[in-house]
Write a structure and sequence with these properties.
2 domains, H-NOX domain, about 50% helix
């Protein structure tokens, strides 16, 4: 997992629950007082351990924590990649161009980066369908990021699962409709 995600999780937990909570979650996760750096890579299992410990500490389901984090980090990602974003885009256009703009740059700048495969297709003028594939099965993160991006555009979106890897499907199919 890219270090940016782990440092963003730290910011998310600290903003919502405080610094003490972050260190308690790391302890519960069996990670001691580990520090993360944006430019390094870490085992995916560390994110899963942190989410599990956060779920235990808050009583919230892991998927809800991951999706809330996605909304939080989606706004950061929007700002980081703003130079690549066409000013005429809105939420759905942003999504339709994610692979060819943002993920292409991420992969070219960092050969270790493994963002999920995202295939967006337009359904109609208000909806796009996301076909999400990743061994990490973090579709909740993707949904949260979509919500965060929509917040940046001050647009509401409805997100509906049509298929989900977590329910045994081969990939996730997520319908995103602008309200």
């Amino acid at each position: 997992m890219h270090g940016f995600i782990l440092t963003a999780i730290q910011r998310f937990v600290t903003a919502g629950f405080g610094t003490v909570a972050w260190f308690s979650i790391l302890e519960e996760a069996g990670l001691g007082s580990k520090e993360y750096a944006n430019h390094l890579h870490y085992p995916d299992e560390e994110v899963l351990k942190i989410v599990g410990a956060a779920s235990k500490a808050t009583g919230l389901p892991p998927g809800q924590i991951v999706e809330s984090f996605g909304t939080f980090v989606g706004k950061d990602l929007f700002e980081i990649f703003r130079p690549l974003i066409d000013p005429s885009w809105r939420t759905l256009e942003f999504l339709l161009h994610t692979e060819e703009t943002i993920h292409q740059v991420v992969r070219s700048r960092n050969t270790q980066a493994k963002p999920p495969t995202l295939v967006f297709s337009r359904v109609d003028d208000r909806s796009v369908l996301l076909e999400y594939g990743s061994a990490r099965q973090l579709c909740a993160l993707g949904k949260g990021i979509i919500r965060g991006v929509a917040d940046c555009y001050e647009e509401g979106v409805e997100i509906v699962d049509q298929a989900c890897m977590l329910q045994g499907d081969e990939e996730c199919k997520i319908l995103v409709t602008r309200k």
